[in-house]
Structure prediction request, 330 residues.
Amino acid sequence: MVKAVVLGASGGIGQPLSLLLKASPLVDELALYDVVNTPGVAADLSHISSVAKITGFLPADDGLKKALTGADIVVIPAGIPRKPGMTRDDLFKINAGIVRDLAKGIAEFAPKAFTLVISNPVNSTVPIAAEVFKAAGVFDPKRLFGVTTLDVVRAETFTQEFSGHKDPSQATIPVVGGHSGETIVPLFSKASPSFQIPADRYDALVNRVQFGGDEVVKAKDGAGSATLSMAYAGFRFAEAVIKASKGEKGIIEPTFVFLPGVAGGEEISKATGVEFFSTPVELGPHGAEKAINILDGVTEQEKKLLEAAVAGLKGNIEKGVEFVKNPPPK
Ligand SMILES: NC(=O)C1=CN([C@@H]2O[C@H](COP(=O)(O)OP(=O)(O)OC[C@H]3O[C@@H](n4cnc5c(N)ncnc54)[C@H](O)[C@@H]3O)[C@@H](O)[C@H]2O)C=CC1
Ligand SMILES: O=C([O-])CC(=O)C(=O)O
Prediction:
């Protein structure tokens, strides 16, 4: 039996993500939580003739507790999205508190659940969740994931003409680092099967993966950021976590984790100088079984990208940790 919970289920990402989870044969129970509209979204989805039994909750009447109790996997797309001209870090002011409070709920009502954080800025919201879990004495680094799958999905899509896959999702193109601008590092040299990108196209392709989010923010012109591609990516990652938890072997996905708490992660943490980092992770019954180091043998260009990523990540991580350790005055 798998119970999945979506926190922020009525939003632009929350609704299509809930649809995909409701339609998935891997999910037996689905609970939707948001500060608005969950009764309607749950009623609508409940007419779909799939396995999952669906319920919707609002904050009143212990809604968060009821949604989270018994959860195996919790996905968090709660929080505000960007508008043109904003960086993901500009979302910190509002989303940091939202993620902190939802993480407190998870610590209390579903401390053993896999927690998948989508809310931006991921580079800071994942450290926030980790600090909340630590303070509550329930932190298991193998069970906390920042969802960076959309960066991988974009890399697969944007390089299709070089990878040559009819179905671009069949390419393996690792993207490491974090989830904002220069902290996003596509490692094209580590793609498998390998392919060559012409030198005059390289910078533009890296830039497109790093700033793919901005492309959507601009096109939506004030109406938000990526929602449908994110729902696809979030579902892909959630599905991978669920399949691995059920014993399926060989599932590897890049995700933003607390490296010192995952087997193999210490080495990557030493090499990069950061504790939180997105790297390919082998998933298993208990979550992140092994962090895979693919940083050896990267190209000189990729080394430079990694340096810039780490410099940005350090501040983002510190900001998240500080937010919980030394909360700003109310
Ligand atoms: N990790 C990634 O790759 C990506 C992350 N994002 C991020 O995901 C977040 C959500 O984006 P959208 O769905 O487009 O935004 P949205 O505004 O459409 O939806 C957010 C939902 O969160 C709900 N919410 C707000 N406070 C809440 C709380 N305390 N508890 C529960 N629900 C709450 C809102 O009522 C709303 O329904 C944003 O922070 C965005 O930047 C977006 C795309 C990609
Ligand atoms: O760009 C944004 O703000 C949303 C996001 O994280 C993405 O699309 O990668």
In short: The mean pLDDT is 97. The pocket of oxaloacetate ion (ligand 2) is lined by residues 81-82, 88, 120, 150, 213, 216-217, 225-226 (CB under 6 Å).
